[in-house]
Specification:
FAD-dep_OxRdtase; alpha/beta; Geranylgeranyl_reductase; nine-stranded mixed beta sheet; 379 residues; eight-stranded mixed beta sheet; Flavin-dependent dehydrogenase; FAD/NAD-bd_sf; binds flavin-adenine dinucleotide; FAD/NAD(P)-binding domain
Length: 379
């Protein structure tokens, strides 16, 4: 019987943006890191694929040049209501468009180059006792580590195991995403509302256009299928009708996800340091989940390196500092994001809001600034 259990400094559960960014950062701090990711790379994910420029200095620190990967620079923004009222603005900070297919794989390759071990398996149990974690996978593997980062995304089997509060609340949101070829400006990200949802449009590498919409199940369930829903609801917004009808799909079938929860979560559970969506998910209408995921990875990594260097003397202090910094960085951003998303969810209020924004365009850049972070500093 082989009873040797491998021991790592840090095990990261989930190899998306948060998990892989932490893995690269921690490997630069000479820590012995294992990432356990259930899927292989590259893989498409349901996501708007527009990232705020706030993360660029940090991605450079991680040795990721998104423009070498073909990312499109984006500095213009359009917002339309269900009835097709349109507002255009410049993005105060700007961003870029890159597919998750491309970005996650580039991060994974970088992590491997830096000596990080990546295991393809599903984590199905994490236990903490005697100051160390035991992590078990569906494939029957077991590992130990001093620190575990939970970076397994919006919702997973582990949330049930950890008895997290949000998992008991049914979420009505689902999302659909596809890539198409067609005519759309490289430098624009558009958010077009329709009854019960909104659709983000922006270009990514290879001149593909990402179309990604989020809606609630109550709107969706009245229709036969995605095509029927799009025809009868989504296409009531003239901008969406044009882009969907005048472009050629790249995917055979659109990707879909359901049970997207924007409920409040705890950034630390059972001593696991939660990063990215595992700690909180902001409404894509009014915030950038991807930059939050990457930023939280930096936050966690800096503190974990200090912990291993004994600059932070014990676990309790590590957890308190992470919680304090996480709240200071994200709490108000999440709150404003939630308020804005709720207002735009109500068609009448959103029409009035758009009228107000049209008269006072500075309100829009104020909202964008409050729901996005400042450019990240590399520390
Ligand atoms: C419809 C929609 C549109 C969005 N659009 C945008 C946008 O345009 N811009 C933006 O900035 N943000 C957007 N977001 C938010 C963004 O997608 C997320 O915030 C971001 O993906 C978070 O990254 P993450 O690393 O936390 O999670 P993920 O990228 O989801 O990574 C989690 C990883 O964990 C793995 N995993 C899960 N469970 C296990 C397990 N038990 N064991 C092993 N591995 C596991 C998964 O396979 C996955 O690879 C959008 C979100 C939605 C829902």
């Amino acid at each position: 019987m082989n009873s040797t259990i491998l021991f790592f400094d840090v095990i990261i559960v989930g190899g998306g943006l948060a998990g892989l960014s932490s893995a690269i950062h921690l490997s630069k701090g000479n820590l012995n890191v294992l990432v356990i990711e259930k899927n292989s790379y590259p893989k498409h994910k349901v996501c708007g694929e527009y990232i705020s420029n706030e993360v660029l200095p940090y991605l450079n620190f991680l040795d990721i040049d998104v423009f070498k990967l073909g990312a499109k620079k984006i500095d213009k923004f359009q917002l339309s209501t269900t009835r097709g009222q349109l507002i255009s603005a410049n993005l105060p900070l700007g961003g870029f468009g890159i597919s998750r297919f491309c970005l996650d794989a580039a991060l994974a390759n970088k992590a491997l180059d830096n000596g990080v071990k990546i295991l393809q398996d599903l984590v199905d149990n994490i236990q903490f006792s005697n100051e160390q974690f035991s992590v078990k996978t569906k494939g029957g593997k077991a590992y130990k580590a001093k620190i575990v980062i939970g970076a397994y995304g919006k919702r997973a089997n582990l949330d049930v195991k950890l008895n997290r509060k949000f998992i008991k609340i049914k979420s009505p949101y689902l999302a659909v995403k596809t890539h198409v070829k067609g005519v759309f400006p490289d430098d624009l990200v558009a958010l077009h509302n329709f009854e019960g949802g909104y659709c983000g449009i922006s270009k990514v590498e290879d001149n593909n256009i990402n179309l990604c919409y989020i809606t609630n199940f109550n709107s969706f369930k009245k229709f036969k299928n995605i095509e029927d829903f799009q025809e009868k609801v989504v296409f009531n917004n003239r901008f969406l009708k044009t882009i969907f009808n005048e472009s050629i799909p790249v995917f055979e079938e659109p990707l879909t996800i359901s049970q997207i929860s924007f409920e409040i979560k705890k950034p630390i559970e059972n001593h696991i340091i939660m990063c990215g969506d595992t700690a909180a998910l902001i409404h894509p209408l009014s915030g950038n989940g991807m930059s939050m995921a990457i930023r939280s990875a930096q936050l966690a990594s800096l503190l974990i390196i200090k912990f291993f260097n004994s600059e932070i003397s014990n676990r309790d202090d590590l957890e308190k500092q992470y919680l304090r910094e996480w709240n200071a960085t994200f709490k108000s951003r999440l709150k404003i994001g939630r308020i804005v998303a709720n207002l735009f969810n109500k068609p009448k209020i959103s029409e009035v809001l758009m009228q107000v924004i049209k008269r006072f365009p500075s309100i829009l850049s104020h909202i964008i600034k409050r729901t996005h972070g400042k450019v990240m500093k590399v520390k």
